[in-house]
């Protein structure tokens, strides 16, 4: 609803958007633009005239080399900080996160179109970025490590204002009002919300999680969805709500600190990581001893 029908931008993509705006390190050019090889291999011919890999590589270094090298420096700095902190991202964790990103866009094709159109990256470049981002996030999460008192203060301040308060919601998204009303009738008859969401919802970003959209505040969702969700009480299920994405059935849960402490912790850490990510990378680069013969 904000950036996709699932209503949330993943942490990875939220940080990516921040980095695109900030231009930190030109990171999105990726580190796989060129491979030097032997140099003698012919990569193209023009009316019989050869273009060798060495010529191509020289052009790429002249045009993009300093940017790509800067990317590699930044990635090394992040990995060094991860080693100091004793954190890592396993291949299984990386592939699981990539699968979530792809699902949030609606599949492989939509994913590739989106990262090219909005972030200017190929799949290989995005994979490089995502692994770096996940590694950096692990470091920042360890640095944050909020205690319960910090979380409670944050939660109380957040919930004190109507403009800043957060709710938790799940939804079922379908194409027609008729189908939405049928689902609402099933829910009124005692059907399980999560089961119906997995079976019926067309939102790829939340269906597999039983329609769960996590915690969010005002401004995160499209207006029609937001108005309906914030008007509901704890546990209430909406009538069908139409948005530009289709028809929604929404169920809201009002957060309780003790019951939902881990979700509150996750939301707090994600928020702080997003705030800290770009300044932290900039500080790493500024404070590092780096020799760069292309820069």
Automatic annotation (TrEMBL):
Main enzyme class: isomerase
Annotated EC: 5.2.1.8
Reactions performed catalytically: [protein]-peptidylproline (omega=180) = [protein]-peptidylproline (omega=0)
Record-linked PROSITE patterns: PPIC_PPIASE_1, PPIC_PPIASE_2
One Pfam short name: SurA_N_3
Keyword line: Isomerase, Rotamase, Signal
InterPro entries named among the record's database cross-references: PPIase_dom_sf, PPIase_PpiC, PPIase_PpiC_CS, PrsA_foldase, Trigger_fact/SurA_dom_sf
Molecular function via GO: peptidyl-prolyl cis-trans isomerase activity
Top-rank taxon: Bacteria
PpiC domain span: 164-254
PANTHER family xref list: FOLDASE PROTEIN PRSA, PEPTIDYLPROLYL ISOMERASE
Designated name of the protein: peptidylprolyl isomerase
Native source organism of the sequence: Symbiobacterium terraclitae
Lineage: Bacteria, Bacillati, Bacillota, Clostridia, Eubacteriales
């Amino acid at each position: 609803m904000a950036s996709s029908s699932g209503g949330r931008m993943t942490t990875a993509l939220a940080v990516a958007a921040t980095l695109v705006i900030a231009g930190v390190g030109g990171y999105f050019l990726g580190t796989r633009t060129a491979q030097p090889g032997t140099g003698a291999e012919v990569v193209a011919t023009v009316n019989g005239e050869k273009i060798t890999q060495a010529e191509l590589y020289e052009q790429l270094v002249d045009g993009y080399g300093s940017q790509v090298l800067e990317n590699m420096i930044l990635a090394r700095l992040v990995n060094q900080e991860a080693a100091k902190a004793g954190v890592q991202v396993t291949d299984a964790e990386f592939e699981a996160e990539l699968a979530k990103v792809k699902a949030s866009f609606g599949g492989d094709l939509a994913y590739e179109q989106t990262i090219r159109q909005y972030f200017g990256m190929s799949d290989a470049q995005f994979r490089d970025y995502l692994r770096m981002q996940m590694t950096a996030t692990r470091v920042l999460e360890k640095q944050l490590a909020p205690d319960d008192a910090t979380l409670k203060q944050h939660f109380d301040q957040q919930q004190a204002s109507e403009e800043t308060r957060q709710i938790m919601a799940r939804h079922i998204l379908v194409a027609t009002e008729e189908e939405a009303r049928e689902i609402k009738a099933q829910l009124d008859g005692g059907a399980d919300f999560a089961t119906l969401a997995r079976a019926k919802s067309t939102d790829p970003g939340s269906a597999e999680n039983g329609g769960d959209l996590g915690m969010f505040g005002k401004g995160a969702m499209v207006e029609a969805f937001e108005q309906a969700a914030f008007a509901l009480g704890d546990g209430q299920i909406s009538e069908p709500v139409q948005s530009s994405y289709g028809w929604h059935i929404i169920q809201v849960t009002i957060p309780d600190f003790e019951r939902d402490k881990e979700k509150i912790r996750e939301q707090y850490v994600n928020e702080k990581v997003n705030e800290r990510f770009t300044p932290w990378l900039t500080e790493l680069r500024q404070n590092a001893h780096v020799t760069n013969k292309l820069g």
